[in-house]
Specification:
Structural class: mainly alpha
Length: about 280
């Protein structure tokens, strides 16, 4: 089992690197779109849709809506200047703050949405759509000036989130005593989260020193801190919805790793929050 997980993880890392650094923007957009459509298909289970055909329709509708949004954005302007993208990223900030409250007060908060499939589907839209635009906006960052600039920013966020997850797991296993959110995710501890934050801080320092990231240290610290905290909320939020749906994994698309959402749950929050802070709050453009 561990061998299969490691092999799959290695393949996924290779795919991510190729997608970020070798694909042109159109190719990256198509891969991003496919990931979001598969995520929508998986979210159908979290929303209580058991019919596979309906979940396929949900994925198709999600893809069509994202394509329509892309078609409404003029091709000659940076994505971050389009009102569709701006509002989506701002809404993402509000959604993840709301998700923090839902997680903090779970299971009492579930009485507000437990019986409403439409609300759970709306939560999926608020999760997937900003993630799509956050990924695309960061990848397009300074694209005409330097093809790799946006790729480095996205790679940085992904490594940052991965370091939080890995650090939380290792420190939690070794030192974990105090539960973070026992009713949502019993295995997560405060010691693990603190260890994850320390690990991500080291990664942020390393990237700031050696990677071509164009931002002042204070801006990078604030945006990175926001992304790290958002990633923790994203992880807990998906755990909450999976617990409510009575499932362990969002799907079995990735051998040994569960589903797409199981792998990008932290990124669905971290990417749009980081993009919003960096490009809309601090105007690093």
């Amino acid at each position: 089992m561990l061998k299969h997980r490691l092999i799959t993880a290695g393949i996924l890392i290779l795919i991510v690197i190729v997608t970020l650094f070798l694909l042109r923007l159109i190719g990256f957009s198509l891969v991003n779109l496919a990931v979001c459509m598969l995520s929508a298909w998986e979210w159908g289970r979290l929303a209580g849709i058991t019919c596979k055909k309906q979940r396929i329709y949900l994925a198709i509708i999600c893809g069509l809506l994202l394509v329509l949004m892309m078609l409404t954005v003029p091709a000659y302007i940076p994505l971050i200047t389009a009102w569709q993208v701006k509002y989506t990223l701002w809404v993402s900030l509000a959604w993840w703050l709301t998700a923090l409250l839902l997680v903090s007060y779970y299971p009492r908060s579930a009485t507000l949405w437990r019986k409403s499939r439409h609300m759970r589907l709306a939560f999926g839209i608020l999760t997937i759509f900003p993630f799509f635009w956050g990924m695309l906006t960061l990848r397009q960052y300074h694209y005409e000036i330097n093809y790799f600039t946006g790729a480095w920013w996205l790679f940085y966020v992904m490594v940052l989130v991965c370091s939080v997850d890995s650090g939380s797991y290792m420190f939690g296993r070794a030192l974990g005593r105090h539960k973070l959110a026992p009713k949502v995710s019993p295995n997560k501890t405060w010691e693990g989260i603190i260890g994850g934050i320390v690990t991500s801080t080291v990664i942020a320092w390393f990237f700031n020193k050696y990677a071509p990231l164009e931002a002042t240290p204070i801006t990078l610290i604030i945006c990175s801190s926001g992304a790290v905290l958002a990633s923790i909320i994203g992880d807990l939020t998906e755990s909450m919805f999976k617990r409510e749906a009575g499932i362990k994994d969002s799907s079995h698309l990735i051998p040994g790793h569960g589903g797409i959402l199981d792998r990008i749950d932290s990124l669905t929050a971290a990417v749009p929050v980081f993009a919003c802070l960096m490009l809309l709050v601090f105007y690093v453009i």
